[in-house]
Amino acid sequence: MANKKLYETVGSTAYDNLIVDNFPPADVYSVTVTSGEGKLTRGTVLALSTGTAGTGKMRILGTTAGSNETLDANCILAEDVDATRADATALAYRTGHFNRQALIVKTEYTFKLADEEALRKGGILLSDAL
Questions:
Q1: Which of 8, 29, 70, 71 is the most exposed place for a label (fewest CB within 10 A)?
Q2: CB 94 within 8 A of CB 121
Q3: pTM exceeding the 0.90 threshold for the entire prediction
């Protein structure tokens, strides 16, 4: 009888310190990221484009809003996405409990209390995690 391997490694995951707790549960949904946003990484805070000139698509938080456009923090990117040359469909967290220090916003943008409040109203809680 041949020696058969009774176990094998199928895959692995790395802890990225993004999710702090299982309550409230992290709920994922599909979003459209606006073309030209570039390559975005899991943990990027996305803002929804609304207003009379809004597109209903997502942009990275900290992007300057256009005329008659409002950009408010809305969700957190759940997976890497490339929206360099075209609009991209991605998965994002609309609820959950996340590490404030692991979030990504546009370079030189400072995450504000108003941003945190907008996320909280949508069901996203933020905490400091070590």
A1: 8
A2: no
A3: no
